[in-house]
Amino acid sequence: MMAFHRRCQKCSLMTAAVMLSAASSSFAFSQPKGMMLHRSKNSHDANQQTQTILPASIQSPDDMFHPSSSSQHPPDAIIPLSLQNHPTHVLSIDEISPLFQFKSKSSGKSKVLNTTGLYHLIIILLTMPLWMAAMSIIHYLGDTIDGFDEHRAKFDYTGKIWCRTYLSLTNSYPILEGDVDRLKVGPHGEMSEGACLFVANHASFLDIAVLCTVLDPVFKFIAKDSLRKFPGVGTQLVGGEHVLIDRTDKRSQLRTFKQAINYLKDGVPIMAFPEGKRSPDGRLMEFKGGIFSMAVKAKVPIVPLSIANTHAVMPDVGFLPVQSGQKGELRVFVHSPINVEGKSEDEIAMEVREALLRELPADQHPLEDGVVEKELVKV
Q1: CB–CB of 188/345 below 8 Å?
Q2: Is pTM, for the whole model, over 0.70?
């Protein structure tokens, strides 16, 4: 028993370290000390109706499937006054108060760790072994008992429990608003209103934990195949039979497309990020082609999810979260479903983009062409 305990403890530490390394290496950029996006102090009259013309966003070179013309921006969209008038929650380096500042060995980017990050690390080290043990047990039972775990729903639920526990203990549980009734589940975890394609903006590594927390139905992520090698996240994706894609292999892309469609036809929702990668600054980027055609092929609606302020809670410069989700106001808005019947992928993408932006704060909207965000002088 002692030997088993020591092995479990060693596995726990290795798991946490690898997951943190994965989070760090997956970030797109870093902000050395003294740099930040400026905090807006402007406000408008509460009775004033504000209309924002959506600008062109930053073109992303990293394809998920292929670049798509479907990422053209809608001509205009209304930002709710509650979001338009709210100051950004992004912290400056001074406000973050880093205890440690270092460069990631894998990416070469500068990272910081503050007291909030250290607390998150402790919670991860304490709770990760239970998650890993639960996955091992449920996976074994699923392999040995016929019909015990259809679609690996029970296996996936262990990850949802861990994410909810982690975000609760770190005071970062997200607010859920919008068409929340759509997320109601049946007796076996299936969606009461049938399968759909969930799509969300991708602003932070924290998005995954947030989505697993708010989505009760059984669902499958479309994720990078490279994540399979990481304990924790990779174990969940592989053991839960999620849809993993190798972006360098066109055959893998085809298999991914077919696997996702089969899940949708079987009543299992798919969760995808149409941008194809995390935004380096939290602002919505261009969409990639191929995502929305899965919904058309499977004849299911698309449900957009606007994720607000994860970029402020866990920015690229942070090795771990730099502030609690309560202070950063983590929020997920569930939009009404978009019917895809008789629409082109360009038309669908336009509707999805407009919906996502409608419930994102102003600092997550794309910049106007030629506008450069203000940065403080490097130290």
Answers
A1: no
A2: yes
